[in-house]
């Protein structure tokens, strides 16, 4: 790191990126998520679409708009306020990022705190689908007999690019770690974590393509579209991880570790945009077939 590097420019960039992280993860996407849930509940109420609300979720749907979602947003706003307090303390104490890096751990810890409300929503969604499968009691079930292939849902060229970038990152990463006899636990942990992540993506995609429906009522076209979106997210995530790790290692090797907090925050925001952003954009409420959840009447088969 050049000794005469403008620290004011570094701090300005870091504050701007961290402010973006606070707004994007604790304000913008939680608001979009609440708006999506309200849209579903209002347009497809439990009285007319009981299959969408198994077990206690009919009651939850009625109370979510007033109490549940308000509490969810209050928690997110509190986390955002904490982030602003952290920035205020940094400004007031004359904080400067370490030249040799390491401050990115605080960005990661705050990100994990930001993700807690979203993880709760994800866990509730898994429980929701589990109750759906448990209460699914149709006697006439149909399944598509057309053969399914992974290449239908994930472009092979994109997968090949992800595999190539993973291989290039692996070579670049190991080239800077010396002889295998000198590798520490950090090297092995990184290899296991990144390789395991890619293996998980492949196995989970196979489960989505060839396994049973997570939502037993969902229309086949909606399920296939969801798989395509998730496949795109997983492949782009793999590509992003390889590029991010290569960039952070280059920063370590060439003396720009001071930018590690900025790089980590920027990468985490890209992950959210590439995850929730793609879902909100490509799977809108109006594009889904909710008739499969409607209450059956005597005239219906």
UniProtKB/TrEMBL annotation:
The chain crosses the membrane at residues 6-29, 69-93, 105-123, 158-175, 187-204, 233-251, 263-280. Keywords: Membrane, Transmembrane, Transmembrane helix. This is Uncharacterized protein.
């Amino acid at each position: 790191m050049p000794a005469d590097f403008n620290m004011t420019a570094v701090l300005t960039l870091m504050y701007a990126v961290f402010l973006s992280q606070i707004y994007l993860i604790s304000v913008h996407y939680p608001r979009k998520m609440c708006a999506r849930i309200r849209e579903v509940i209002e347009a497809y109420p439990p009285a007319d679409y009981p299959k969408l609300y198994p077990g206690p979720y009919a009651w939850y749907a009625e109370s979510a708009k007033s109490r549940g979602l308000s509490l969810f947003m209050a928690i997110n706003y509190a986390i955002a306020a904490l982030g602003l307090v952290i920035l205020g303390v940094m400004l007031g104490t004359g904080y400067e990022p370490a030249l040799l890096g390491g401050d990115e751990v605080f960005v990661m810890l705050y990100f994990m705190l930001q993700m807690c409300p979203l993880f709760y929503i994800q866990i509730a969604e898994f429980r929701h689908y589990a109750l759906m499968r448990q209460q699914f009691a149709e006697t006439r079930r149909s399944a598509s007999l057309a053969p399914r292939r992974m290449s239908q849902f994930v472009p092979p060229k994109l997968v090949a690019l992800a595999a190539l970038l993973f291989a290039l990152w692996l070579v670049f990463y190991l080239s800077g770690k010396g002889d295998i006899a000198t590798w520490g636990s950090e090297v092995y942990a990184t290899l296991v974590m990144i390789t395991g992540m890619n293996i998980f993506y492949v196995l989970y995609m196979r489960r989505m393509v060839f396994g049973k429906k997570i939502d037993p009522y969902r229309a086949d076209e909606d399920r296939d579209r969801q798989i395509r979106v998730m496949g795109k997210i997983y492949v782009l995530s793999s590509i992003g991880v390889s590029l991010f790790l290569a960039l952070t290692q280059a920063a370590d090797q060439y003396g720009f570790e001071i930018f590690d907090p900025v790089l980590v925050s920027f990468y985490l925001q890209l992950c959210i945009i590439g995850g929730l952003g793609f879902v909100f954009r490509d799977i809108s409420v109006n594009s889904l077939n909710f008739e499969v959840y409607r209450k059956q009447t005597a005239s219906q088969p």
